[in-house]
Request: fold
Amino acid sequence: MSTSRLALVTGGIGGLGTAICLRLSELGHRVIAADLDARADALARFHERTRAQATSIQFRALDVTDHDRCREQLTAWEEELGPIDILVHAAGITRDQTLRKMTLEAWREVLAVDLDSAFHLCRHLVPRMMERGFGRIVHISSVNGQTGQFGQTNYAAAKAGLHGFTMSLARECARHGITVNSIAPGYIDTDMTRAIREDIRERIVASIPVGRMGRPEDIARTVAFLCADEADFITGALIPVNGGQFMSF
Ligand code: CAA
Reply:
């Protein structure tokens, strides 16, 4: 049985993020669901879905692309709520375009939200976790960071980079009771995959051996597994949760 801890879930009001918050709360953790507060419809959906667990899951506005604000806000939250022992970094966006059409803005936006953010969060949290001798960090990467995907040079570069970051940080943290891992979801039924053109999405689903998209809960269960106190010998790993879409060893 894991100790009850304080977890920070970025992208906390998204499809994956909400499922992760709910799962961690069911396991007895307090959860900060951090996300942009600009998307009123997503925020309303999040509050609706987490209402029964509102005492343990709270929304806080955070822009993960802003290094200084991340440091200020994480400091304030730790002063108010206690040490953040678990970081689940699920904030991520796509701006799919083939390279020949990709704007510099689409490149930079994806790298900022999906990759720079990991530095902004970990740079603040890791030294504190080291002082306490405990931490669980899980980065949500992607199968497309492993295989590449048509129209995703930006996203695949960021998600592959995120796992390089994970492996390096895992080595630096290994003697300090902190594990750092990545999960590589395949195509999961969320707003992000619903935005793919229908014919393209159908072709992708047809290529998944289990014959369907994943569910956000598939990812949330894997996060919970990696965040357990007992998962202290798993670090620097990339856990695929993709319905067999990409198999490797
Ligand atoms: N492989 C090879 N060729 C392809 C292709 C593919 N997968 N997809 C399109 N093409 C071809 C088209 O047939 C077309 O050929 P012609 O020029 O000969 O007609 C050409 O490429 C189209 O090129 P365009 O640059 O005009 O592409 P587009 O603007 O029509 O569409 C795209 C580009 C929006 C990126 C579209 O291909 C797409 O949506 N692809 C899917 C991207 C995807 O899977 N995103 C995942 C989002 S979810 C996610 O990322 C979560 C996660 O972690 C898994």
